[in-house]
Design a protein that fits this description.
The structure holds two protein chains of two kinds. Chain A is mainly α. In chain A, about 65% of the residues lie in helices and about 0% in strands. Chain A has two helices and no strands. Chain A is rod-shaped and about 70 Å long. Chain B folds into three domains: about 1-70, no CATH class; about 75-105, no CATH class; about 115-214, Sandwich (Tumour Suppressor Smad4), CATH 2.60.200. Chain B is built from four helices and eleven strands. Chain B has helices at about 1-35, 40-50, 60-70, 75-85; strands at about 115-120, 125-130, 135-140, 145-150, 160-165, 170-175, 180, 185, 195, 200-205, 205-214. A six-stranded antiparallel β-sheet of chain B has the order 2-1-11-10-7-8, with no helix packed on it. In chain B, strand 7 and strand 8 form a beta hairpin. The chains are: A mainly alpha, B alpha+beta. The interface of A and B includes residues 36, 38, 40 and 78 of A.
Chain lengths: ~90, ~210
């Protein structure tokens, strides 16, 4: 294999690694923007705040957190204020 | 050949769109339920998700998520009202976030109880009132003000702290080996001050003291 092919291959590998790293960093940053409010919502609902870390799982993580909050019984109570029901 | 490729690409795009649509509807449904559980109107939660369909994009949904996380939930107001047994506020049906605390009137000053208390038993009678905010129950007096001495080897030096406030008294164990019991229940230092206004008997070490009003 000529030297230029090796150069091309190493450049491609380098650029590919850099792009993957940047994608990973961007994913964590975006996840963090979601994790902070979700952590607080989970704690106020009575769940462990650590459930919000599921946002780090690509694609389905956010849906799992939402499903836990939407379909789980909130330990800290849920619904309208008791005084306003009737 | 080109036509087949184009059809395949369009088919893939349609499949992706279908998945995106299902995900959007699912997310809107779940947000409806979450908003409802927080005491907010469910449609507001669903609308926050469906906003991503508009030209504003998903940034507004993200901002609304932060607002939802840190805003006051109507559910919390209800828990507080239920805890004190207050009647329904006149502002029922008010917009979310409206304060409900005005329904709680301060206690009437005419009901203030100025009587003192007596702890009696084990050969001692200790009388005190809420003239001081705190008293120290100890087995041996050191001359410090606010000391209530129970001379017994099983009583710590000091043993516990008595706190008084507006007709109520509290007791806090200071972590002595003899231990403290409130109507037979163990009081630990980690419990902090406990309200003993309605308690009949406290036990410091081996000494049982009956609590009464004077």
């Amino acid at each position: 294999m000529p030297d230029t092919a090796y150069y091309m291959l190493s450049w491609l590998l380098g650029i590919g690694s850099f792009v993957l790293l940047m994608l990973a960093v961007a994913h964590v940053v975006v996840a963090l923007v979601l994790i902070i409010p979700t952590w607080r919502i989970c704690v106020r609902a009575g769940f462990s705040g650590a459930w919000s870390l599921l946002h780090l799982v690509p694609m389905v993580g956010s849906f799992v957190v939402m499903a836990i909050l939407a379909f789980g019984d909130w330990p800290n109570g849920e619904g309208k204020p008791v005084a306003q029901r009737s | 050949m080109m036509g087949i490729d184009l059809a395949a690409v369009l088919g893939l795009f349609g499949l992706t769109s279908a998945f995106a649509l299902v995900a959007l509807v699912l997310a809107a449904w779940m947000c409806w339920r979450i908003a409802d559980k927080a005491g907010l109107p469910g449609w507001a939660g669903a609308a926050a998700i469906l906003l991503t369909l508009t030209g504003i994009g998903s940034l507004v949904s993200l901002i609304l998520l932060w607002v939802f996380a840190f805003m006051r939930w109507p559910r919390d107001g209800g828990v507080r009202l239920a805890a004190v047994g207050a009647p329904a506020p006149a502002s029922a049906g008010a917009p979310a976030g409206a304060p409900v605390s005005p329904a709680l009137a301060p206690p009437a000053k005419a009901l203030a109880d100025r009587r003192g208390w007596t702890l009696a038993g084990g050969g001692v009678t200790l009388a005190f009132d809420d003239g001081r905010a705190a008293y120290t129950l100890t087995g041996e007096g050191s001359g410090a003000p606010g000391e209530l001495v129970v001379s017994d080897p099983s009583v710590g030096r000091p043993h516990a702290r008595l706190l008084t406030a507006a007709g109520r008294i509290g007791l806090e164990d200071l972590g002595t080996p003899g231990g403290t019991l409130i109507d037979g229940a163990r009081l630990l230092p980690s419990h902090g001050p406990r309200d003993i206004t309605a308690v009949r008997v406290i036990k410091l070490g081996n000494v049982e003291l009956a609590l009464s009003r004077t």
